[in-house]
Amino acid sequence: MAVMVFPIGLIISFVALGRRSPTARPTTIAAQGHLVTAVNFIGFASVFAAISFAIARILGEFRVGGGALQQAARRQVKTLKMPGTAKIFLGLMMMAMMTLLAAVVLHFVAASSVTSGTLSLEGSEQWALRLEGVRRTGVATYLLGIVFGLATIVRVLRFQSSRLQELPGEVAVGS
């Protein structure tokens, strides 16, 4: 999705730039500013979601692969209970996604409101400033979540490593 949204955001930016002539209405310029930002942050949210799903997929593969390896060695299958870092990772990813999507929706609302005349130019600028803070909070939350996801991968790798070292000393299951 990000592959589609970023070029769309770029095209919208060029269209908006082309319409910024001395005769352009200030409300149109303000609305386009909100729309360009909203579309670009749909792209950012997509990229962060892809990274998050990749981390979750890696963790899932480690769990399944480690269990399959232990089973193939005919040993008792032991898996790591979900670490606290994984739970924090999931929570932060959900909060970050909702924060970014809320900011995107509110940018569309602001663009619509300024175009219809229910929001003044000063009000539009205030919305843009406040939503900047919301977007930055969402991005920071995503990055923090990614850190917890990577920490979980490290923890799982340590568990798998220690479990592999235990296997030769165990008695095979069913023997």
Kindly describe this structure:
This protein has helices at residues 2-18, 26-72, 84-116, 121-166. Helix 1 runs antiparallel to helix 2 and helix 3 packs antiparallel against helix 4. It has 4 helices and no strands. The longest helix has 47 residues, at 26-72. It has one domain (2-169). The chain is mainly α. It is elongated. The model has no long low-confidence stretch (mean pLDDT 90). It starts with a helix and ends in a 9-residue tail after the last helix.
Major beta sheet summary: none
* Nearest-integer average pLDDT: 90
First-residue to last-residue Cα separation = 52 Å
What order do the helices and strands follow? Answer: HHHH
Count of spatially separate domains: 1
Assembly level: single chain
Derived structural class: mainly alpha
Tell me the number of strands: 0
Number of helices: 4
Unreliable sequence segments? none
- The helicity comes to over 70%
